[in-house]
Each structure stands twice: as C-alpha cells, then as structure tokens.
C-alpha cells in the first residue's frame, strides 16, 4: 500500500531554501542527519496531464485563500514572481525561493482529492 509521497526540490542553494521552507512556510520537519531537513507537507494530490513535448513534473503548493496567503508572504518579505492569473481550475501565482527558483502556488476552484 502506498503510504505517502516524497517530493524532491533541486536547488542551487539548498541550505537557504531549507531555511525558507522551515522559517517562512512554517512547515515542520525532521533532520535526516547532518542538517538534511525533510519537511512534512500538507495533504496532497496528484494529477496526470497530457504532455506536448518531453514529460516533466511540477510541484504547486495549494491554499484556500490565495489573496490572504500572498498578503502574509508580502509581510514576511517573500517576493511574488507572477501576477495572479485566474484560470477555470484556479487562481495561480508563484513565489521566489532564496535560491532564485520559483515555487508555484494556487487556490483550486475545482473539487480537491485530498479532502476526500
């Protein structure tokens, strides 16, 4: 039986991104040894989309109220890297990690599987 999922973010500055996830996103975690932090994620779901080119994988953090979440991030000095885009499936944007990478964030407007 599948008991969970393990997501890997590759980073040019893993220490800074780990500190951001711990201190700014407030995700609890464990030290797997030597300061190698692994974070607990909120409930998750997986979707399979068609690919027009090479296959790839994406990670989006989800929130219930995107506008409030962005206000909280701005108050903490987090850079919002994309204007909020309203799609039929949700409202989407992205934030900047300390390494410079973007982390997409969205508020789903579709039924969610993780609450089932």
From TrEMBL:
Q: Which residues form the VOC domain?
A: 3-108
InterPro entries associated with the record = Glyas_Bleomycin-R_OHBP_Dase (IPR029068), VOC_core (IPR037523)
This protein's source sits in the domain of life called: Bacteria
Q: What is this protein called?
A: VOC domain-containing protein
Q: Which organism is it from?
A: Streptomyces cirratus
What high-level taxonomic lineage is stated for the organism?
Bacteria, Bacillati, Actinomycetota, Actinomycetes, Kitasatosporales
């Amino acid at each position: 039986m599948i008991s969970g999922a393990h997501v890997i973010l590759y980073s040019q500055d893993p220490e800074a991104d780990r500190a951001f996830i711990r201190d700014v996103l407030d995700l609890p975690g464990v030290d797997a040894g030597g300061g190698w932090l692994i974070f607990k994620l909120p409930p998750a779901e997986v979707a399979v989309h068609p690919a027009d080119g090479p296959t790839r994988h994406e990670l989006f953090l989800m929130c219930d109220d995107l506008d409030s979440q962005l206000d909280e991030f701005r108050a903490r000095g987090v850079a919002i890297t994309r204007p909020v885009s309203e799609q039929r499936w949700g409202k989407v944007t992205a934030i900047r990690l300390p390494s410079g990478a973007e982390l997409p964030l969205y508020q789903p407007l579709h039924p969610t599987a993780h609450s089932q």
